C-alpha cells in the first residue's frame, strides 16, 4: 500500500539533526487493522530525523499503535487522520482523529489477567506525560498524547 504524501516542515541536517524549524507531519490512512503498521512506520521513519531519542521513538510508536487501533475497533470510520508535532524541541504531540460513530470518548478499562484486550489505554497512560480527547471538527473524536524527551 502506498503511503499518502507527507506534510513535514523544516528539514533534517546531517546525522539526523534538525534545523530547529517547525516539525510536523500529518497523514491519513484507511481505518483497517493493516493500517496500524503503516502508522507505526511513519512514526519510526520521522522521529529520529527530528532528533528524538530511541526511547521516545519506541514509546511514540506504541502510543500511535494503541490510539490508531482504538479508532479502528471502536468507531465506524472509513479513514483515520494522524498528526505528529515536535513542540519546542522538548516534547512530542501525537494525535489520532476518527470520523465518529463510536462511544463518546476513550473509556480506560481495568483488564483482568485472563482478558485478551483492554490494556491499550493503560499502556498509553504509562508512556506519556499527558493525554486526552476532544470532539473533532467533522463529528469524530480526536485523541491526543504528549510525550517528553527530545535529544
Query: Rg from C-alpha positions?
Result: 15 Å
SSE sequence, one letter per element: EHHEEHEE
Q: Helicity, in percent?
A: 25-40%
What strand line-up does the widest sheet have? 1-2-3-5-4
Question: Could you describe the largest sheet, including whether it forms a barrel?
Answer: 5 strands, antiparallel
Strand element count = 5
Average residue pLDDT: 78
Give the overall form.
globular
Number of helices: 3
The residue ranges in which pLDDT falls below 50 over 5 or more consecutive positions are 1-18
Question: What structural class should be given to the helix and strand makeup?
Answer: alpha+beta
Strand content: 25-35%
N→C terminal distance: 32 Å
Chart the SSEs and their pairings.
Elements: E1 23-30, H1 35-46, H2 54-74, E2 79-87, E3 91-97, H3 120-127, E4 130-135, E5 141-148
Antiparallel strand pairs: 1-2, 2-3, 3-5, 4-5
Give a nutshell description of this structure.
It contains three helices and five strands; from the N terminus they run E-H-H-E-E-H-E-E.
Amino acid at each position: 500500500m502506498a503511503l499518502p504524501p507527507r506534510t513535514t516542515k523544516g528539514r533534517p541536517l546531517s546525522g539526523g539533526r534538525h534545523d530547529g524549524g517547525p516539525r510536523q507531519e500529518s497523514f491519513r490512512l484507511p481505518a483497517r487493522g493493516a493500517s496500524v503498521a503503516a502508522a507505526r512506520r511513519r512514526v519510526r521513519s520521522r522521529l529520529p530525523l527530528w532528533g528524538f531519542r530511541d526511547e521516545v521513538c519506541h514509546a511514540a510508536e506504541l502510543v500511535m499503535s494503541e490510539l490508531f487501533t482504538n479508532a479502528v475497533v471502536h468507531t465506524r470510520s472509513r479513514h483515520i487522520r494522524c498528526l505528529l508535532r515536535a513542540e519546542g524541541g522538548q516534547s512530542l504531540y501525537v494525535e489520532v482523529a476518527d470520523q465518529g460513530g463510536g462511544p463518546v470518548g476513550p473509556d480506560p478499562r481495568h483488564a483482568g489477567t485472563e482478558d485478551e484486550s483492554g490494556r491499550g489505554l493503560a499502556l498509553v497512560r504509562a508512556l506519556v506525560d499527558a493525554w486526552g480527547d476532544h470532539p473533532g471538527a467533522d463529528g469524530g473524536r480526536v485523541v491526543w498524547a504528549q510525550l517528553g524527551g527530545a535529544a
